[in-house]
Structure to design on (233 residues):
């Protein structure tokens, strides 16, 4: 399908032609505008997006950006690592020491399911900051997709991630530079599966603005989007 970009202003409505529409958009009514010689499909914003997940490697800013994003949207903020600590009564480092990574991954997956379940049940809107490894676990991208949760990958150059993690403690998987780099390289293909990617090597407020501009939040951009299907001959 070929798309063209244009904005049409009418007396009382503004119709924006969008060139890229996320797969969650629903096609609404089709109608003809003979003067434009185009067939237009009105595409309504999906009103039901109420949860967004932030993925990304250690040090990518998931917690900082997630908390700010939630504040701006007036949505609840869920930090998956914090949920794990609350549920286990252990700091993440202690959990790794006592139970090991495989048990951590089981608890992480269970807490993600529980957090989403509660959010959907209560009808609350929420921003979820995943752990650095959550989205890289087998089945996680598929699970979030099946739940209809858009995933935003906070992407920063490895040097930035390293610099940030060097000065922070409490990350059992940050052992040394070479294993950090290797783990990052191993996980990159998973992060690429995210629905959206934003550059998170900048001020958190700028990252939040970029996320708000992705077009996934019902109230962030009130424009109606119109897809030009094909010119009529
Ligand atoms: C992990 C990242 C951590 C935490 C745990 C495991 C990982 O989260 O979930 O230490 O596998 O990369 P942050 O990315 O928030 O540090």
């Amino acid at each position: 399908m070929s798309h063209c970009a244009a904005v049409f202003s009418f007396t009382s409505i503004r119709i924006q032609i969008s060139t890229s529409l996320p797969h969650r958009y629903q096609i609404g009514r089709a109608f003809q505008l003979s003067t434009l010689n185009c067939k237009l499909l009105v595409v309504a914003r999906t009103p039901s997006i109420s949860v967004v997940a932030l993925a990304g490697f250690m040090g990518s800013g998931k917690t900082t950006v997630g908390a700010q994003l939630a504040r701006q949207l007036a949505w609840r903020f869920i930090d998956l690592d914090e949920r794990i600590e609350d549920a286990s009564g252990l700091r993440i480092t202690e959990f790794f020491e006592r139970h090991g990574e495989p048990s951590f991954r089981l608890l992480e997956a269970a807490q993600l399911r529980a957090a989403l379940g509660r959010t959907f049940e209560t009808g609350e809107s929420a921003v979820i900051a995943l752990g650095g490894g959550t989205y890289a676990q087998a089945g996680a991208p598929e699970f979030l997709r099946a739940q209809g949760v858009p995933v935003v990958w906070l992407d920063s150059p490895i040097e930035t991630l390293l610099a940030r993690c060097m000065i922070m403690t409490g990350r059992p998987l940050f052992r040394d530079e070479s294993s950090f780099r290797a783990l990052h390289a191993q996980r990159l293909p998973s992060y690429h599966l995210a629905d959206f990617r934003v550059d998170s090597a900048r001020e958190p407020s700028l990252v939040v603005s970029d996320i708000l501009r992705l077009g996934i939040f019902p109230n962030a951009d009130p424009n109606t989007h119109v897809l030009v299907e094909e010119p009529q001959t």
About this structure: Confidence is low (pLDDT under 50) at residues 1-34, 42-47, 221-231.
